[in-house]
Amino acid sequence: MISDEPKTLHIAHLGPLGTYAEAVAINYTNFLKEKAEVKTQLCPYPSIAETLYAVDSKETDLAVIPVENSIEGSVRVTMDTLWQLDDLQINLALVMPICHALVSNAKSLETIEKVYSHPQALAQCQKWLNAFLPNAQLIPTKSTTEALGILDQESTTATISSKRAAQIYNLPILASSINDSPENYTRFWIISRVDVDVPDIYPHSSVAKSTHTSLAFSLPANIPGALVKPLEVFSQLGINLSRIESRPTKRSLGEYLFFIDLEADDSQSEIQLALTELSKHTEILKVFGSYNVLQISKSSN
Ligand SMILES: O=C(O)C(=O)C[C@]1(C(=O)O)C=C[C@@H](O)C=C1
Q: The ACT domain covers which part of the protein (predicted)?
């Protein structure tokens, strides 16, 4: 018998409970419920790489992954893992305002000896940490919530987490808005396998056309001008780049992969032409697809 029950979409995100990635997944789930009447189940994973492996191995349909932060730049593990995997595509970008808090049972800042958090969060609060906790040991964790469980046993320990996480774990906030710039945003991508039909969150609107396309490539040879040729393809076709990042190929020192975001939709004829041209000047070319960008409101984390 064929069931009329809508399929439940499983969405992988960095856990445990209370991460920023989970807050983004909740927002995305609300969009899906409202616009496409889809059921979802959130699936926390212990690391960002594992959320991508979950989609790749068909354990989940989608993954929410952090890509880039306005203070600290790219999330390197995201780029490195995306490059390793094939057949994944970006469906949507969500930009989340990030407001960090210092969470601790300590009576005052003076008694704090250790601060745990995700390296991105520690880096986004460097100046504040130098100014207010110059002697504290900074300990990187896999997420901003991984160490929240130990705070009840350790009164000289703190974490950098969201206000929402402090509420979920019922823990006190010792200092709020501790990121070095109040304009702190992280861009996340919603990733699926290319063969998965992801519901359209704009079914009845005119916002159908995608605004961005992302891709990555390696170069055929490490010679002068090797990067100029691929970049010229975009300038000659009048396609604007909104981001370019390099990562080591991990094959030999000084060899790089390039990650590029374009302000265009890959169904446009210029982009089709650009991709054909680009394949002539690159060694491996991976196109992660076209998507729209949505802003999440400040009250969400
Ligand atoms: O640890 C979390 O809460 C995350 O969702 C990860 C992450 C990141 O990797 O950038 C997401 C947003 C913030 O920039 C800090 C950490």
A: 215-292
**Whether residue 124 is found in the same domain as residue 47:** no
Residue 242 lies in a domain: yes
Whichever domain contains 283, its CATH number is 3.30.70.260
> How far apart are alpha carbons 28 and 9 in whole angstroms?
12
The ligand 1 site (C-beta within 6 Å) comprises 14, 19-21, 66, 69, 75, 98, 118, 120-121, 143-144, 186
Number of folded domains that form the chain: 3
With a cut of 80, say whether residue 299 has pLDDT above it.
Answer: no
The residue nearest atom 3 of ligand 1, judged by CA position, is 19
Domain residue limits at 250: 212-292
**Residue 293 — φ and ψ, nearest 5°?**
-120, 130
Query: Same structural domain for residues 88 and 195?
Result: yes
Same domain, 20 and 67: yes
ipTM of predicted complex: 0.97
Q: Going by CA atoms, what residue is nearest to atom 15 of ligand 1?
A: 121
- The C-alpha atoms of residue 76 and residue 215 are separated, in whole angstroms, by 15
| pLDDT score for 208 | 57
With beta carbons less than 8 A apart as the criterion, state whether 178 and 123 touch.
no
Residues 91 and 106 in one domain: no
**pTM: predicted TM-score of the whole model, two decimal places:** 0.93
- Ligand 1 atom having least distance to the Cα of 21: 5
**How many Å lie between the centroid of ligand 1 and the Cα of residue 240?**
28
Distance of CA 151 to the CA centre of its chain: 27
